Sequence to fold (675 residues):
Amino acid sequence: MTRMRVRQAIVAALADEMRADETVMLMGEDIAAAGGPFKTSEGLLDEFGPLRVRDTPISEMGFTGAAVGAACMGMRPVVEIMFMEFLGVALDMVVTEAAKFHYLSGGRVSVPMVVRASVGSGGGFGMQHSQTLENWVAATPGLVVATPSDAQAAYGLTRAAIQHDGPVVMLEPRALYAERGDVVRGADGILPLGKARVMRPGSNVTIVALGQTVRVALAAAEELDAEVIDLATLYPWDQTTVLGSVRKTGRLVVVEEAPQSGGWGHEIVSTVTSQLFSALHAAPFRITCPDAPVPYSPSLESRHLPTTEYVRRQVTDYLRTGQVPAPWWLEEGLTA
Amino acid sequence: MTMTPLHSRERRAALSDPLETYRRMNEIRIFEDQIAGLFAEGLVHGTTHTCQGQEALDVALATTLRVDDVVTCTYRGHGIALALGMTPDSVLGEIMGRVSGCIGGVGGSMHLSDLDVGLLPTFAIVGAGVPVAAGAALAFQTRGEDRVAVSVCGDGATNIGAFHEGLNLAAIWKLPVVFVVDNNVYGEYSRIDTTTPITDLSARAASYAMPGESVDGMDLDAVSEALGRHVARARAGEGPSLLEVRTYRFAGHSRADQAAYRPAGELDAWKSRDPLTLRRSALIDAGTATADQLDEIEQSVRDAIADVVERTSATPEPDASAMFRNVWTPAAASPPGQP
Ligand SMILES: Cc1ncc(C[n+]2csc(CCOP(=O)(O)OP(=O)(O)O)c2C)c(N)n1
Ligand SMILES: [Mg+2]
Fold:
């Protein structure tokens, strides 16, 4: 086990896959000579050379499309989208091309590519560089979407994504890149896609979180008898683990970094409610961001994402009253 | 001394005096130099992109365009915002996330705007401003107005699809738009020659059958003269054109970037043609001002910016209600730029 930062765990995963498989190659803006805007490919140019570690122009559609073509021809390209928002100019290549190729070729063409994109708030990058935008890609049949919440997941999911024979989008919470954690390297450290992680056992309530909200949920759960689950793969998500947990606890809270409307938590709440209606002790609910862009001012940005204090208060109220508490902005009489 | 800040339109009008253009170039430089210090003190967070070395283009835009023309530019937009007339208070307020910012502190460094002086919200997505400028010109053309749109993007942006789609649309529709490429040699940490197979970016114009020209971006008069011709052409209904302005990014790409990737001597070579120094010599040589007068201007700008920093530091951050303001557009809102 090695202690490393999340961004170093990503470098380690890329390096281990590149050593094991010569078809793995990297493309992205300033990922080679500069080692990546977030240092997630540091040292890889030196070890693997400029054919396999390529700096690109500012041409997201071009290099993401090139990854689709290279993947069709037997390479395993990993492309870096510096901020998830920039996938906006290349979305066709991922959602409409890569995700459909296997199906539209009658199973003859596979597209084993990985799109890594940094997501989320917390860095003061402003409203156009702080969204998670998982809705752009999740719920696209054929496209796996995963999000690491710590260094081990960053290592394990990245390796699994590269090994996967179809397209995978990895949404990496930018705010976690500098977080440290213990990492098991090698085959034992690989986390299978589609498998949620039970981060903390508990019996009173199941808290499902993803990416940056996992550490929030874990901190909030400290004085509660809560089971915290890191969904890890958002699509297709691990129904077995989540349903199994709620069957035991009878209560579900989803903590999301996404606007309240249309967030991925609806999918979890809806499935759990439909499947386990009679086993529930209270209505499942979601703790989310408000339906507003991520504001820049530090005091506002820090409130936009559910805080540990807020999640603790919401879950405590929920457990005490059996009712779903109102979100903070409604309590304060604020709406958009 | 605390002065009441002028309105952005008054600040724009003031540029008819050549000494004011010198003052404005210095204001931009000193303002940008301050940002680095504020970052170090933790008063600015997130990211910010400064434009030292590009002041001639900023001010040339302001003196060439009419106040009812519009500009789209990038996240490296503090200089253009100040040049067009935005007050240092509204720009710094936004950069520091305070209520005095142009949008009350919810935007930050990359999101400046002031429709009173024709600045659409600055673009944080590379290339996005190019077709949007064409669209502004489309509105002017459709309504028969003689207004002009100017898109300012970087050298790196000429490699993204939006740039090419925007130029092509403008060309086939003969839109009153000027595409300015601010070639400051770098896109983030990559030198232009590692990402782009041509060195003369005005050559991009040929594919879209529009005039293309490159100009020395360190010389205010040269930029103003060239830009003036392109804008006049667009205003006369002769269609779009491309102007490459050759500048140099004196600072790193953003906040902490020390730009260690630059070849030795490159920065110094460009700094020997600092647009502020060139301007200073030009004004003295032409007898427009004495060295003492210009020294005085520089000092008064330094004092004024120090006041702005002090005022802004004492200004509060917005309260939570600001998060929810302007998410939805009320039915009665009038289109931007319309009275
Ligand atoms: C679509 C998109 N891709 C990448 C980025 C990240 N990014 C921000 S600025 C920049 C460099 C742009 O270079 P250039 O166009 O030369 O403008 P400059 O920064 O030099 O003014 C990059 C890659 C972005 N904002 N948008
Ligand atoms: Mg540039």
Observations:
- Chain B has a mean pLDDT of 95.
- The pocket of thiamine diphosphate (ligand 1) is lined by residues A 29, 58, 60, 82, 86, 89; B 74, 76, 124-126, 153-157, 184, 186-188, 249 (CB under 6 Å).
- Strands of chain B lie at 70-72, 149-154, 177-183, 186-187, 190-191, 212-216, 241-246.
- Chain B touches chain A through 39 residues (CB under 8 Å).
